[in-house]
Design a protein that fits this description.
The protein is mainly beta. The protein contains one helix and twelve strands, in the order H-E-E-E-E-E-E-E-E-E-E-E-E.
């Protein structure tokens, strides 16, 4: 049996470059919910059930959420759509398993216990999730793949062209590096 190694057993050229990956639990913004969906994969493709509703139209997974509109946004490779937030609207985002996106969330609510907390989520990439984004949490996405990618989103308010609840922050509010894939 081989003995356990220590840093002294690593060539000096690499010793100072070694680091440990951070596997600690990351903070979750107050009100954000991430739900993993079953993605059934077969020889002929895959299937994900996105959401079920009660007889009165309420989401079974997100009680109190009634869908008023469902939309899709297609993003070209390398594009970034950020940051936007709503004062009246909650969102539920889904990136199809066949696509891959980096989702960014930033709590900008003045009285939130998680004020200023940001989150980065890799969605798609063979998995299926729903992400509930409460009003006042800025959100955006970066297409980190080499093909077009889509976000399907459910909202509890209909878009009103005369009075849009679509407020913006600069895309680089957290710095350009926030939207870059971390290499490590």
């Amino acid at each position: 049996m081989n003995p356990i190694l220590s840093a002294r057993d690593i060539d000096g050229k690499y010793q100072k470059k070694i680091f440990l990956e951070d596997y600690s639990k990351k903070p979750i913004i107050e009100g954000v919910k991430i739900v993993e969906l079953r993605n059934m994969v077969g020889e002929d493709g895959d299937f994900s059930e996105l959401m079920r509703f009660t007889e009165n139209g309420e989401s079974e997974v997100f009680p109190g959420f009634f869908v008023r509109q469902i939309s899709r946004s297609k993003m070209l490779p390398g594009s970034i759509k950020a940051w936007h937030l709503h004062f009246a609207q909650d969102d539920i985002w889904h990136v199809p398993p066949s696509d891959k996106m980096l989702i960014g969330l930033l709590d900008v609510r003045k009285d939130s216990p998680t004020k200023h907390v940001s989150m980065r989520l890799a969605l798609g990439g063979g998995k299926a999730h729903l992400v509930f984004i409460p009003k006042g949490v800025a959100h955006g996405a970066a297409n980190i793949s080499k093909k077009n990618a889509s976000i399907i989103y459910f909202v509890n308010q209909q878009f009103n062209l005369e009075n849009p609840d679509e407020h913006r922050l600069p895309w680089d509010t957290l710095g350009e590096e926030f939207w870059q894939v971390k290499k490590g």
